[in-house]
Design brief:
CATH topology of the largest domain: Serine Threonine Protein Phosphatase 5, Tetratricopeptide repeat
Largest sheet: none
Number of helices: 11
Strand content: under 5%
Keywords: Repeat, TPR repeat
Radius of gyration: 23 Å
Shape: elongated
Number of domains: 2
Helix content: over 70%
CATH architecture of the largest domain: Alpha Horseshoe
Order of helices and strands: HHHHHHHHHHH
Oligomer: single chain
Length: about 260
């Protein structure tokens, strides 16, 4: 038997937002019990994972990645490489890499998570859709808009099946699609996606995203109107003449 008093103190401190204290308790727990339990014990793996979360919340992704990697190695030894519990660990490792700006490794780790999820679930499972969303946004940050679009569309396909129409994930994913299309220069499509995101954000009570999108669409409308009014007058404009779309300034609307 092992003493879990330090472990419980660490969990309680974590829930209360006392991160430094939580880290101290959990590290003391491992120091006292690691030899007895061994690195493959589920409690040890879970403690390393919680330490990773704590370091992420403290803004130290390097330390977080170290703890998540220990969790992964323990889970692989204990459960095997394709066990579903590894999905979350790989995704957390990817998130730590994103925070360090290491997008290539983040993509690699998210892909590991996706491969495992697809072994166990259908493409419409939340785990698959969430990982596709994360992958899409890493590709977006990396600048590969085609890959970003592919994965965000897959995520949207999953969320539309498993989520209610006013679910926050739908608002975020429509917004992500708008960001990608805008970066590609597809402003008409981007506006359509931003509008859909706004409609869902209003229903879901996502006030911050709602405000940002309202400002975004209003600014784009103003920019478009100014662009059209500044065009030189034509002596005899044709009724079927097409109006060129004005390009809005890119804005950072990343939500996840």
């Amino acid at each position: 038997m092992f003493s879990n008093q330090l472990l419980e103190k660490g969990k309680a401190a974590h829930k209360q937002g006392r991160y430094e204290e939580a880290i101290q308790f959990l590290e003391q727990f491992l120091e006292s019990n690691l030899t007895q339990l061994g690195e493959n014990h589920p409690v040890v793996a879970a403690t390393w994972f919680r330490l990773g979360q704590l370091w992420m919340e403290r803004g130290n992704p390097e330390q977080a990645l170290t703890q998540f990697a220990k969790t992964r190695d323990s889970q692989i030894r204990n459960l095997g490489e394709t066990h579903v519990h590894l999905t979350n660990t790989w995704n957390q490792m990817a998130a730590a890499c994103v925070d360090q700006g290491d997008y290539d490794r983040a993509i690699e780790y998210h892909q590991e998570a996706l491969n495992i999820s697809l072994r166990h679930y259908s493409e419409f499972h939340p785990s698959v859709a969430l990982t596709c969303k994360s992958l899409g946004m890493v590709w977006y940050r990396k600048g590969d808009l085609d890959q970003a679009l592919t994965y965000i569309q897959k995520a949207l396909g999953g969320f539309r099946v498993i989520c209610a129409e006013d679910h926050p994930l739908l608002a975020q994913t429509w917004n992500n699609l708008g960001m990608i299309c805008e970066a590609q220069g597809n402003h008409r499509e981007a506006k359509s996606y931003f509008t859909k995101a706004l409609n869902v954000a209003r229903k879901a009570g996502l006030d911050t995203l709602k405000f940002t999108l309202e400002q975004k669409l209003e600014q784009d409308e103003t920019t478009s109107s100014k662009s059209q009014s500044s065009e030189p007058r034509k002596a005899a404009p044709r009724k079927d003449s097409s109006h060129s779309q004005s390009a809005s300034d890119p804005q950072n609307l990343v939500t996840g």
